[in-house]
Structure formats: structure tokens, C-alpha cells
Amino acid sequence: MLLFNKRFKNSFIKLLSNLQLKLVFLLLFLITTFQIHAQESMMQEMSNTFLAKLIDTATKYYPQVKALQRRMNIAEINLRKTNFSWYDVISVSAYYSPTKSSNINMPTLTGFQVGFNVNIAALIQKPFSIKVAKEEVEISKIGQQEYSILLEADVKTRYIKYVQSATVLSIQNRIAIEAESVFKDIRYKFEKGETIFENYSKALVFLSDNKKSVIDAESNFLVAKTSLETIIGKKLSEIQ
Asked: Which of 20-34, 40-54, 195-209 has the lowest mean pLDDT?
């Protein structure tokens, strides 16, 4: 009977210890869930003013924007060149004859002679060439406008992911602090003989998982930050 009571007491203590650990983990989970719920909306972290600065910076410094502007410059130069090429339709020739020719069959005039030639084919083609040059300018403008829209959307998307990753990292850091606190408490109880090794092992695994989650969150944050800095062409620390 005494042996039965002793076994029952040990089993009860073990069960109670497990229940205490589960309650601790449950409490930590509830706290974590509450923190995540409080932070699930990123709107309070978003800044439309800062986002506008990012879009403006990307418009100024992203290489593709500069390349499109150069193409626009080339199209405008070709248009001006085509407009001035009207003079290519007409050719002027001049020559000088100092004396009259003694050949009766081929008489020539003396002095300066000026001649004008008109290239009819070039004259007909010229309006179409000018129209093509104007269309190339318009196509360049449309290309710039289209890329401006795409660039703005890209900057917004990368900024949202940046804010999201920063928020998740902040949450994971707080969870890790809580997990560290729980682990220290259970380790202290284990060293004092107030809890079993199984509970200590579970707490250690829980702590390790949270540390890994922090590392993953840090990695995602750095990737999002690098992605955003790539599209704007500058470091975020340089944006005022």
C-alpha cells in the first residue's frame, strides 16, 4: 500500500510538472498570438511620405530610367535631323566658264552658271520620313510613361515587403526574449530538481526553434532591404 502511494505520488508530481510546462507554453503562445494580432496590420508602420521619396529617388537613379531617357533623346534628334533634311531634296550646282567656246555645234556661255536639281522621289518620301520620326518620338514617350507606372508599382511592392519583414523580425525578437525567459526559468527548476529532464529538453527545443525563426526573419529582412535599395539606386540610410 505504501509502495502504491509512493508510485502514485511520483506519477502525480510528473503529471503536474508536465501540466505546468504545458501551461507555460500555452501562456507564451497566447502572449505571442496577442502580440502578432496587435502587429498584424502594417499600416501604422507604412509612411506615404517616405514611399513618395523612394519612388522619386528610383525615378532619378535607376539605370533603366536613364536608358529610356537616352532613347527619347535619340528619337528627338532623329526628328530634328529629318526635318532639316528637306534641303536634301534640292541640289545646287555652279560652274564658271571664262571664255566662249569656238565650237559652233556646242556653244557655251561665259561667266558663272548655276543649276538646280530636284529629287522627285526624295520629295515624295520626305513627309512619310518625318511622320515616322514623329511616331518614334511618341513611342519613346509612351515607353517612358509605361515604365514609370511599372517602376512605381515595383517600388511600392518592395517597400511593403520591406515593412512586412521588419515587422515580422520585431515580433520574432520579442518571442525569442519570452522563450529565453521561459527556458531560464525551467533550467533553474531542473537544476534545483523541481522539474524533469523531459521538460527541460522541450524548453531547449522551443528556444532553439525560436532562435532559428529569428535568423530566418533577419535573412528575409536583409533580402527585402537589399531588393528595395536595388530598385531605388541608393541606400535607405541616404533617403531623407
From this structure: 20-34
Q: For residue 106, how many C-alpha atoms fall within 13 Å in the half-sphere facing its CB?
A: 2
Per residue in 96-111, pLDDT tens?
Answer: 556 555 555 555 555 5
Extended beta strands in 26-152, E state:
90-97, 111-118
Half-sphere exposure of residue 24: CA atoms within 13 angstroms, side-chain side? 20
| pLDDT greater than 80 at residue 71 | yes
235-239: long-range pairs with CB below 8 Å, 24+ = 239/50, 239/53, 239/54, 239/57
Rounded Cα distance, 62 and 11, in Å: 68
Domains, the chain: 18-85+129-238 (1.20.1600.10)
Nearest to 217 by CA among 179, 157, 161: 161
